[in-house]
Write a structure and sequence with these properties.
Largest sheet: 4 strands, mixed
Strand order of the largest sheet: 1-4-2-3
Helix content: 25-40%
Strand content: 5-15%
Shape: globular
Number of helices: 6
Order of helices and strands: HHEHEHEHEH
Distance between the termini: 32 Å
């Protein structure tokens, strides 16, 4: 919506949106192939400056009715769950790898079942009941709202 509104304000501009993982976006901005990139996680890169655009958080997404729904879980509890990951290079994946590493855990210590493209494919896998995933809260807000609305007595 933001890009559409921006283009409406500046009709003389031609706006093109490409969707890639964070690593690719950073590399293409550094190579001056893109004028601007929006990424899920900042990465250190000598030729790229990062400015906050939107604050979000990474959360654990589980299918509706899952025992973890609405609860905090430990890393030990995660070990027995089928995990869906985003592809290498995705900002959310890098954030998760960094957080786990700080706690002495690697992804290979967990039950990684699927490694899929970006957020939408991981989200779809969780909605389909194929596992749990770490994802941007903004990416699942509408799903969470629908689930909560569906549980309200009518």
């Amino acid at each position: 919506h933001l890009l559409c509104q921006f283009q409406g304000i500046h009709p003389e501009l031609h706006v093109v949106l490409w969707v890639f993982d964070t690593q690719t976006i950073v590399e293409r901005v550094a190579a001056r192939e893109f004028e601007l990139g929006v990424v899920g996680a900042g990465r250190r890169h000598r030729g790229v400056a990062f400015e906050p655009f939107f604050r979000d958080e990474v959360v654990l997404a589980v299918p509706a009715g899952h025992p973890f729904a609405g609860k905090r879980v430990t890393i030990d509890e995660l070990r027995g769950e089928p995990l869906v990951l985003m592809q290498e290079g995705a900002g959310v994946r890098q954030v998760i790898e960094d957080e786990l590493r700080e706690r002495g855990v690697r992804l290979r210590d967990l039950d990684v079942r699927l490694e899929l493209g970006l957020q939408e494919s991981a989200r779809s896998a969780v909605l389909g009941g194929f596992g749990i995933t770490f994802i941007s809260r903004a990416a699942i807000d509408a799903d969470v709202a629908r689930t909560r609305g569906a549980r309200r007595p009518g």
